[in-house]
Amino acid sequence: MKEFDCVVIGGGPGGYAAAIRAAQEGLSVALVEKEALGGTCLNWGCIPTKSLLHGADLIRHMRHAADFGVSVKGFEVNLEAMVGQSREAAATLSNGISGLMRKHKITVFKEHAEILGAGQIRLSASGELLADAIVIATGAKARHLPHIECESDHLWTAREAMTPAFLPKRLLIVGAGAIGVEFASFYSALGSKVTLIEAADAVLPAEDHEISAFAKASLIEQGIEVHTQTPLESLSGKKQLQAVFNGQSKRFDACIMSVGVSANVEGLGLENVGLSLEQGFLAVDSEQRTGVPGIYAIGDVAGGPCLAHKATHEAIIVAEVIAGKQPHGLRRDRIPGCTYSAPQVASIGLREQDAGDRAIKVGRFPFYANGKAVASQAGEGLIKTIFDDATGALLGAHMIGEGVTELIQGFAIAINLETTEQELIDTVFPHPTLSEAMHESVLQAFGRPIHL
Amino acid sequence: MPKEIYLVKVGMSMTEGMVSEWYVADGAAVKKGELVYALETEKVNLDVDAEADGIVKHAVEPGVMLAPGDVVGYIYLAGETVPEGALSGQAGSPDANTSSVEIEAPSVAPAPVLASASAVQAVAEPGLPDGRLKSSPAARRLASELNVSLAMVRGSGPGGRIIERDVQAASASSASMPSQPVSRPAQEVLASPLAKRMAAERGLDLALISGSGPNGRIIQADIEAQSNKGSSGASKTAAASGSEFHPGQRIPLKGMRRTIATRMYESLQETAQLSMDMAATMDDAVRLRSQLVKEWEGVAKPTYTDLVIRAVAKALRLHPQMNSQYQDDSIELMRDVHVGLAVAVPEGLLVPVIRDADQRSLQDIAIESARLATAARAGALGLDDYAGGTFTVSALGMFGVNSFTPIINRPQSGILGVNQIYDGLSWDGETPVRTKQMNLSLTWDHRVLDGAPAAEFLATVVELLSEPYRLLV
After folding, report:
1. A22, A326, A441, B86: which sits with the fewest CB atoms below 10 Å from its CB?
2. Nearest residue on chain A to B135, judged by CA atoms?
3. Taking a C-beta distance cutoff of 8 angstroms, is the pair B364, B272 a contact?
4. Model ipTM?
5. pTM of the prediction?
6. Fold adopted by A343-445
7. B194 vs A393: CB contact, 8 Å cut-off?
8. Is the peptide bond prior to A432 cis by the omega test (within 30 degrees of 0)?
């Protein structure tokens, strides 16, 4: 029977990072992953979709190339090659993780793991392992709506949606969270007639209302049919899907279910150690401990926000806790979120609708007043900043527009360093960049924008 | 004649201080009564105002450590000439027209001043009048590399923010002035901009707050924790401060800790102090106090320490030798009875003073001691609150202490330790009777008075506490 200081179950951005960090601390570490290293993020989420969305961006750029004096005569989209490119990106990165595991002398078991008791794991092929600490990092999978009992090859989750065998002419997307909106952007760019329905009252309901409204208008502008406060009533069919919403029945060639995720715990043996899900996820404390000594949980399986970077931070925390170090605290109100739609959406911190009685100052700066944005035909966008009126602390930033997913880190650093408006105002932002709109938004919050 | 601006001497214990900021620029005009510079010492920060109209000439840069009475600048009228360069501490005879800061014991020659202390404020941090020490990360890094204390650096960035260039300049100027007193150990406090701003707004001293961020950086949560701590009683403060220490930690010897270390050590080195205990029967005092607590509800809540202060004040009037200062060729019996009260704060100990304690009623003492203790813990003691103590009372009874040897707060001649009240025995004929008792631990300076008069003083205190109704008259 093999013994390890730490066994990590799940090789996604939480699991592999925890394994590396624990190994860096000198622990003997094993990682168990039944599929590909890198998990959903790398293989079936963040990474391949970014490849597909880059393709979609190329299509958009080519359509507008003539505006910049570049005439493109006839281009065609090869869906299979597009998907192939995305799979290649995923495979490259997954191989990279394998290399990192070797580099850190982490033993990788490519099989299923079941927890038998505290410190005890049974592998589906390699027998039992003993571990002082077990980290559950099994992630989550796409959820289905319980009242929809349709079984069809044309009813997709994100996984099928990113490896389509055909391009649906009419596509229904259920759920306008980040995943739904990204696929709406992708398929719309490829020429599908996309209908996006969302039960909540906004597109991207986790975002600031103003940004959600901006996003909705933008999607509609692109020809996407958007219905909010519209639950899916029923879905039926095999090749042709019949969907009922808003009391109307409509036909679609495919449907993507993007209505959230549920924890991956099947066959994990939670019952053997008396663990159970609370509200669909494993409950943990601020140091990622479950109720069972020696068993920790990180990432999606330990609850939202279901974001890879949140999982990675929890991984660092858990590894340092296991190694007996003082981990950094993770402020859940300081985790940025990104949606890679067209236009992109990125945000961190307090939303205006959540301010309640708190006195805040809000700054807004539109991309149409930013030189770089106008020059590159990216004038559709808004940067909104929220400050505490009493202390000047930056509480939140909400952005929509070209490139904002790369910009949000500036505000993430600012919030994490607890900057006030003064440091941001005093910072020199380079010209000409989209980031100047960040500066202007701060200036606008304090009544002194230059270009507005 | 140009008039000198002196480094004001505040408090007997002040041996050095500095101009932490000039409020009036070099060459700018000032009117009598306007703030001219910010003085910073180990203990207090205060603003000093001009005592004449004229043009201000700086003789020293902010952050240079000087002795009280040193000339820091001049106020001159157009056409007058002013000496150049920084001056030594030999300031010459005080101008007859200048007022002195009357916070010294009469025996100590007041420092000559052209400015008077006013607008006393406890500021959060050296550097800026609002208590913020603003600095860029690069400046902080360079300061740490060059071993330059940011408190000594004048910021030229926006809002007085210290930038890299200022640190370079400060480093160069200190290298070119080897004769200048070496600056204090780095006083830099690592805090987030938000934490600095919040501390300034809440009047918190960042030097007294331990940071929970990376590298001990003070973050918003620490300020909030400190604010909460400040608003909940003394015992909690003590407990919380205890938990801030961890094995392996190196606590820099600076600020209040260094002052306490120096003064306590000097006291033991330079006096002939010794201690004795005497027990007081407290049954009547316990009854009286609980009665007064009810009676004065909403007005004052007398503590046992307040009863002791009242008793001490009365006893000092009867035993003036104990209310004295030892000097090289004489022993000065003090005119006034100002009783200091040792108050524990997270970073150490402060001794605010109940002035003219002998002329105050017990209720008045209770109100004043509560005010001083609260202000001490909030870091809001003013200059007058510290000054001029002639005797000190220090209480450890709340920790269950039965006897200790308090150290004299020089230049005073005595300090009385207040211990816990415990169930003791007295004898009613052959019958043991349970009584409330409390030891009082007196430390006195044998150079000033001998054991017999010291015991007589202590006996008077004990007697007054045993017959506490005498404390009400």
Report:
1. A326
2. A423
3. no
4. 0.72
5. 0.58
6. Enolase-like; domain 1 (3.30.390)
7. yes
8. yes
